[in-house]
Design a protein that fits this description.
The chain contains 30 helices and 13 strands. It is of the alpha/beta class. It is elongated and about 110 Å long. The C terminus is likely disordered.
Length: 694
């Protein structure tokens, strides 16, 4: 070092560093290291400057060299671990922080950042313990309480997470992330009003936080405040156009309101995004506007990859010892008064107990209704899994020796796909609750029929399709229709009109479908359209859309919700059920047919658009299946003008109801159980299942 001694150069560099003249200090440190590459203090100090400047890779290299050269002080080791953490080398960072803590067990930031690294690595239980250690050093550390809440959220310990966030809010009321986390914890506990209050606080403090805006929108949706939720999603999408899966969530929310503003634009963006493999929509909204099986399966695959990748932490699943009975696990959030149970209760009751042992894994709300009491009696064991993690549920199912795990939810409300990602059973089967592929490699089979999944569409499904001999949809033969005869007047219907009923949820009504309905109303002046009340905003929007199409809004009659048996009885007041497309009526369609109400459908390519066609085939009325909007419209007009034909169809439905395969539960159960036995037998034999039908 010509002209200067190494100590004097180092002293000058340190003084520049102390004064905050980092560029000059860095030059001096570089000069020293060219001559003395192992000068510990220069390595350490230059590494620290680079860490401050965001050059984490070079900082990690220099600080690592400083440690190797002999710098064993906690600060150097801490900075090295921090640089590794910033680079995403989380395991090395955790190990580095542990070496720091071995030197100084009271170093708060080492405890805190170690826990942060564990959280980022998905080691959530260890992260909680790490935050507890940090809080042992400083109990009033609000950020540690907040991040501890995040770890507990990931562990599905909602109440504990909420308590942690509450501590953070109390200590630091201006901490927006703590309010947002508390809102998320309350949302998971179904405490929607409290969640909304916390999330409003979060968005007031951080109005540009798209996640808090989205969660507030979800809380408001659950409170029935659909009109308030939609602009929150729109604002979040405006702030973050690439926010994962948000475009589809916004579209679905608007469809629930029958708000068709920018409908074509949303659809175009979602289709383009899916074609490019982008995370533009959850899977479920795609059913509402898109008939492409390929697009639906792409959306499901992207969702599974993002949120529910395979989890091998429990190791490979094993067949349990051969047993006389096959152990079936049914997994659902809907073991209560719910459309799924209205269909499945009879199946549970008729299962052959000599051949099958049944277990229910319930992760829905705790209820005391009649359906919960009825179905819970059908199982060897009814397990309340609400507070269990996905991994713990899968571990329990393995411990029981479940042979076949049947997911009744897919990607619908309160679903738990993570259970199946952990592999709860040797064979995992999707059935009923979700009309499509879940796009995940760990779901082995999908139970369907030849109508809902034609041969040409099977290529798009990741699951192996198991074809039942009749309609895939089970129906409970014990369901009753109220012994009531509603007059049209008491239902608010015109006494002499042709009543066209469309009782599907609002999100299934697309602008194109409503165009057709309005043309039908226009061509059949003595008709009215009977719709189910969804929400006040949807009702007002549909009335406005009718007027825009030249139809008097008074010809739209909105039916309130009522008990199921009464609802089935009032369906008799209609003349014809008009189905939606591309997402058909499902349980709603079988309700109509059970009540003797003829149903007209349009069958497309996808599962969701062919459900009603499957039901009509099983009910013996294939003539009510059309394959184009034009044919659908013409058939509706022909039927509306022919009351005798409508009456004949009604008579045929009622007369054949008990004989049709659609409502023959014992017949369905035999086919369903044969499918389960085939699946199990091939697993035990170590072979793949050949193509069925059975």
């Amino acid at each position: 070092m010509t002209g200067d001694s190494a100590p004097s150069l180092l002293a000058r560099a340190i003084e520049l560093h102390r004064q905050g003249r980092l560029e000059q200090a860095s030059k001096q440190y570089h000069r020293i290291l060219r001559e003395q590459p192992r000068e510990t203090q220069a390595l350490r100090n230059l590494g620290t400057i680079l860490l401050q400047q965001g050059d984490h890779r070079q900082a990690a290299t220099l600080l690592g060299q400083a440690v190797t050269a002999g710098a064993q002080d906690p600060v150097t080791r801490y900075n090295h671990a921090l640089a590794l953490q910033e680079l995403g080398d989380l395991d090395a960072a955790v190990a580095g922080y542990e070496r720091v803590l071995a030197l100084d067990p009271r170093l708060l930031q080492a405890h805190y950042n170690r826990a942060n690294a564990l959280l980022a690595a998905g080691r959530h239980a260890e992260a909680v313990a790490g935050y507890d250690a940090a809080l042992g050093v400083q109990p009033g550390y609000a950020d540690a309480w907040r991040n501890r809440g995040d770890a507990l959220l990931a562990l599905r310990q909602w109440a504990a997470a909420g308590s942690s966030f509450e501590q953070a809010v109390e200590l630091k009321p201006e901490l927006a992330a703590a309010h947002a986390g508390l809102g998320a914890a309350l949302l998971s506990q179904r405490r929607y009003a409290a969640a909304a209050a916390s999330l409003r606080s979060a968005t007031a403090l951080a109005p540009s936080d798209p996640q808090a805006l989205c969660n507030l929108g979800t809380a408001l949706l659950e409170l029935g405040e659909h009109a308030a939720a939609s602009p929150l999603y729109a604002r979040a999408l405006e702030l973050s156009p690439a926010y994962p899966f948000l475009e589809g969530q916004l579209l679905l929310t608007k469809l629930r309101l029958s708000d068709w503003s920018d409908f074509d634009l949303h659809c175009t963006r979602i289709r383009a995004g899916l074609a490019s493999g982008k995370q533009v929509t959850p899977p479920f909204p795609v059913f509402a506007f898109e008939d492409s099986t390929e697009a639906q399966c792409t959306a499901a695959r992207l969702w599974a990859q993002a949120w529910f990748p395979p989890d091998d932490s429990l190791g490979p699943v094993e067949n349990h010892a051969p047993d006389k009975r096959i152990r079936i696990g049914y997994f659902s959030a809907d073991f209560h008064e719910h459309a799924t149970m209205y269909l499945m209760a009879g199946l549970f009751e008729l299962h052959d107990r000599e051949r099958f042992e049944l277990y229910a894994f319930s992760f829905g709300p705790e209820t005391a209704d009649g359906m919960r009491e009825r179905v819970s009696r059908c199982f060897t064991r009814f397990i309340d899994a609400r507070s269990m993690t996905d991994r713990d549920v899968a571990r329990l199912a393995r411990g029981i020796g479940i042979d076949i795990a049947i997911d009744l939810k897919g990607y619908t409300t309160d679903a738990r796909p993570g259970i199946f990602a952990c592999r709860a059973a040797p064979q995992q089967v999707a059935y009923l609750g979700y009309p499509g592929s879940v796009g995940a490699e760990y779901v082995d089979y999908l139970i369907a029929d030849r109508t809902v999944i034609p041969d040409a569409e099977e290529q798009h499904y990741r699951e192996q399709v198991v074809y039942l001999p009749d309609c895939y949809q089970v129906n409970d033969h014990t369901r009753t229709i109220a012994d009531k005869s509603f007059s049209r007047e008491e239902l608010g219907l015109p006494a002499r009109a042709v009543v066209l009923c469309a009782f599907n949820n609002n999100y299934k009504i697309t602008p194109a479908m409503f165009d057709v309905w309005c043309r039908i109303l226009g061509a059949a002046p003595d008709s009215c359209l009977w719709l189910l009340v969804g929400n006040a905003q949807a009702e007002a929007n549909l009335q406005r859309e009718a007027l825009a199409r030249g139809v008097d809004s008074a010809r739209l009659v909105f039916a309130p919700r009522m008990p199921l048996a009464d609802h089935l009885a009032r369906l008799r007041a209609a003349d014809l059920f008009l189905d939606t497309f591309p997402c058909n009526a499902h349980t709603t369609a079988s309700d109509a047919l059970r009540a003797g109400l003829p149903l007209l459908t349009l069958a497309g390519d996808s599962f969701a658009s062919r459900v009603a066609a499957s039901l009509l085939q099983a009910a013996g009325l294939p003539e009510l299946i059309t394959t184009s909007l034009q044919a659908y419209e013409q058939r509706a007009l022909t039927l509306a003008a022919d009351p005798e034909r409508l009456q004949a169809l009604r008579t045929q439905l009622v007369a054949k109801r008990e004989q049709s395969s659609l409502f023959d539960t014992p017949r369905f159960v035999r086919g369903f159980e044969s499918a389960l036995q085939e699946i199990h037998a091939h697993r035990m034999a170590g072979a793949s299942l050949p193509e069925m039908p059975l």
